Each structure stands twice: as structure tokens, then as C-alpha cells.
Amino acid sequence: MLVAAAVCPCPPLLVPDVAAGAAPELDAARAACTDALGVLAAARPGRLVVVGPQEASGLVTYPEGTAGTFRGFGVDLDVRLGTAEGADTDPRLPYSLAVAAWLLERTGWSDAPVEGRGVGESSPPELCVRSGADLAARDERVALLVMGDASACRTLKAPGYLDERAAPFDAEVARALGAADLAALTGLDADLGHELKVSGRAPWQVLAGAAEGADLGGSLLYEDAPYGVGYVVAAWS
Hints:
The chain is an alpha/beta fold.
């Protein structure tokens, strides 16, 4: 059963070494992520599953110890999911889970075993919801760290340019995540999310499936679009 969840954005810029001189611009987001992870630790889960978007289609499981890297951004920084030493030393975490691994390492996570689940950004809602329900059933006390960004179309300089539909979409996402509104998350329009370059839609729907029947309450900890991309941090407990 799901006992807690943290929702965090997943831009590599969240990692100060990647952001370099722009790092202070996301200090508030990093602080909110730390607070959200504190909610997970307080729930004393028996298992932590990190869920994040990936370019590959379908669902991919990454065992504890799987490596990731930020070398593609010109930074000599490698990470590992959880504290276990993985047998596979080749970095292969998608960037969303690499950012999650960095967050867990930064906060000294050692409260429960960790595994990753990559979710194809084009995954249909029903698959995401079903996957979430399966994850929640794997342990008596499951926590989720859910990575994903809202729209990338909030300003003229945003990666997806300005789209007037982006701000209302992001506002509804922030409201739903802050209120733990499962129906609203399940009902997010996958086609519109694709058009607005939303990476978090599928992971949020995995969360909605996992939380069905868990009676969790939500709290919105952060919402902004500093680079024209919507970033949301929330905690459910």
C-alpha cells in the first residue's frame, strides 16, 4: 500500500554542478524537494520506488545500484540509485531518475531499499494507472518519489515557445498534486500534455494509480516556471 509520495521536477539544472552559475535560481525548488523527501522518510516505508519519464516507450525497471551520469552536460558527475553497489557499472539511468538519485544522495537517503521505474512519456493513462496499482501492491508500506516537469511552453524563451494553454494546464496540475486529486490526475489529457511538452503526465498518472484507496492528503510545496518550464513540488502523506 502507498503510504507517502513526493513529487519533484526533473531538470538536470536542479543539480548545481550542471546549472553552474545559474544554480541559485533553483535554490527554492531544491529546498522544497528536500522537504518532500523528508515526508517520505517520516512515513517509514519498506520500499521506495522512484518513477520518472523516459524517452523509450513502455515501462523499464532499474534495480537499486543502477548508475547514471551527467557527463552529457559536460559535468564529471556520476550517480547511483540508492546505496547498493550495482552489478551493471555502465551508466544507464534516464536523466529523470539520475536527478532523483542525486536528490536521494544529497539528502542521505538510507530509510528503505530503492528501485527505479522509467515510464515512456507516451504511455497511455490506463497503462500508467495500472502500473501504479501494481507498484503499491508490492509491499505493505510503499513510498513513491515521482519525477516530472509540467509544460515547457510558459514563455517566449521556453523550450517549446509560448503556448497560451500552458499556464492553465500547469495551474490545474499544481492544484491536483497539492490536493492529491486522483481523478484530476488520471484525467489529464495525454495529447495536450504531449503538445505542451509535459514530461510528468505519465509519472503523475502512475502516482494516481498507486494512491487509489490509500486516502492520502497532499501539500503543494513549490510551483514556478523559472525557465518557461513548469516545476512543481508536492508531498502526499
